Amino acid sequence: MNTEPYQSCIEACDACAAACDRCASACLGEPDIAHIAKCIRLNADCASLCRFTSAALARESHLAPEFCALCAQICDECADECSRHPSEQCGTCSDTCRICAEVCRGIWSQ
Amino acid sequence: MNTEPYQSCIEACDACAAACDRCASACLGEPDIAHIAKCIRLNADCASLCRFTSAALARESHLAPEFCALCAQICDECADECSRHPSEQCGTCSDTCRICAEVCRGIWSQ
Amino acid sequence: MNTEPYQSCIEACDACAAACDRCASACLGEPDIAHIAKCIRLNADCASLCRFTSAALARESHLAPEFCALCAQICDECADECSRHPSEQCGTCSDTCRICAEVCRGIWSQ
Amino acid sequence: MNTEPYQSCIEACDACAAACDRCASACLGEPDIAHIAKCIRLNADCASLCRFTSAALARESHLAPEFCALCAQICDECADECSRHPSEQCGTCSDTCRICAEVCRGIWSQ
Predict the structure, then answer these.
(1) Chains touching B (3+ CB pairs < 8 Å)
(2) How far apart are alpha carbons A43 and D96 in whole angstroms?
(3) Across the interface, which of C28, C37, C41 has its CB nearest the CB of A41?
(4) Are A44 and B59 a contacting pair at CB < 8 A?
(5) Residues 6+ apart with CB under 8 A from A28
(6) CA distances from C78 to B2, C41, C75, C87, D61 (A)
(7) ipTM of the complex in this document
(8) Nearest 5°: phi and psi at B80?
(9) Where are the domains of chain D?
(10) Which residues of D49-58 are buried (b: 16+ CB within 10 A; e: fewer)?
(11) Nearest CA distance, C29 vs chain D (angstrom)
(12) Which of A56, A88, B16, D17 is close enough to D50 for a disulfide, judged by CB 3.0 to 4.6 Å?
C-alpha cells in the first residue's frame, strides 16, 4: 500500500481523468451528438483539471488544497451532466466524478 | 492578426508558461539552490496552470473566467517570488507573470 | 523580439494547440458529427502533444528534438484530416498544423 | 476490477507520473543540487509524457502504441538516472519507471 501524502486523492483524480476521457471518446460515437455535446465539453474540462490537480498533489504544492476546491466543483458539474444520460460510459463517469469531488473536498477542508 | 475569442489571454498564458519553464530550468543551474527552490516550485504550479487555462480558453469553456481568476492569483504569487531574485530569468519570468495576471483578471471581471 | 532558444517552435506549437482545441470545439457544433469525429479525435492528440512539446522546448530538454519529430508526424496527420473538411475551423487548423509540422521538423533535423 | 481497455498501462503511467513528480519535489530539498539536477530534468520529461500517454490511452487514440514506445524510452532513461542516486525517492522512482517502461512496451509490441 502506497502511504505517500495525498495518495488517495491522486488516485481519485487519475481515475476521474481516465473516466472523463473515456466518456468523451465513447460519446463521440453516439448518434445524437447535439444531445451529448455539453457532456463532452465538461469531460474535457474535468479530465484536464484532474490531471493538473493530481500533478500538483504529487509535487505537494502549497496550493494543492485550493486546486482541489476548484477540482471538486468541476467534478460535481461533470457528474451532474453525465447523470442525465443513460449510456454506460456516462454512468461510470458520473460515479467516478462524485468520488473524486468528495475526496478533493476532503483535502480542501483539512 | 488573430481575432479569435480570448486570443490575447491565450497568448499571455502561453508566454507565461514558457517563461516559468525557462525560469525553473535556468534556476536548476544556480549554485545556491536552497535559496531558489521555492521559485522552482511556484514555476511548476504556474506553468502547468497557465497551459491548462490556455486550453480551456481555446475550447471556450464556460468555466474559463473561473480558471482565469485562479490563474491570475498563481501568476501574482510566482511574480512576487521571482521579483525577489536578481537573476535574468527571474526578472523575465516576473514581468511575464504580471502581464498574464492582468490579462487573466480582465477575463474574470468581464 | 524574443530571442530565447526554440522560441519560434514554441510559438508554432502553442498556436497549433489552440487551433486544434478551437477546431474540436467548433466541430462539436456541426450537425453531422459522424463525419467529423475522426477530426475531433486527432485534434485531441495534436493539441495535447503540441502543449507537451512546447513545455519540453521551454525546459530545453535534451529530448526536445525527438519530441518534435513525433509532434511533426501527428501535426501532419491532423492537417491531412482537417483538409478534407470544408469548415472554416478545419481550414485554419489544417494550415496551423502544417506550419507547426514544418517548424518541428526543423528542430529534429538540426 | 476495472476491465477497460489499456487499464493496466494507464495505471502504470499514472503511478510513474506521480513518482517522478514526487522524486523531483524531494530532490529539490537535497543539499547537493548540482549532483541531482539531471534527475530533476528527466523527472519533468517523464512525468509529463506519462500523463500525456495516459490520456491518449484513455481516449483509445489510434496512436497510443507509438506514444507508448516513446514513453517506454523516456521511462528507461529516467530509471537509469534515478538508479544512480541512493535517496529513497530516487529508488522508488526508478522502480516505478521500470514497471511503466515494461507495460508501455507491451502495448507497443501488441
Answers:
(1) A, C, D
(2) 28
(3) C28
(4) yes
(5) A40, C33, C37, C40, C41
(6) 21, 9, 5, 14, 13
(7) 0.95
(8) -60, -45
(9) 7-108
(10) bbbbbbbbbb
(11) 20
(12) D17
Inform me whether the C-beta atom of residue A93 falls under 8 Å from chain C C-beta atoms.
no
Subunits with at least 3 CB pairs below 8 A relative to chain C? Answer: A, B, D
Distances (CA, A) of B13 to B46, B105, C15, C78: 9, 12, 12, 24
Reading the block at residue B64, the C-alpha cell is 474559463
Count CB neighbours of D60 within 10 A. Answer: 15
What is the Cα–Cα distance from D96 to D19, expressed in whole angstroms? 7
Task: Give the sign of the dihedral formed by CA B48, CA A6, CA A95, CA B63.
Answer: negative
CATH of A7-108, one of 1.20.1270.360, 2.60.120.10, 3.30.450.20, 1.25.40.10: 1.20.1270.360
pLDDT tens for the 110 residues of chain B, in order = 577 889 999 999 999 999 999 999 999 998 887 889 999 999 999 999 999 999 999 999 999 999 999 999 999 999 999 999 999 999 999 999 999 999 999 998 88
Which tens digit of pLDDT belongs to each residue from C46-92? 999 999 999 999 999 999 999 999 999 999 999 999 999 999 999 99
- Residue C64, C-alpha cell as written in the block: 526536445
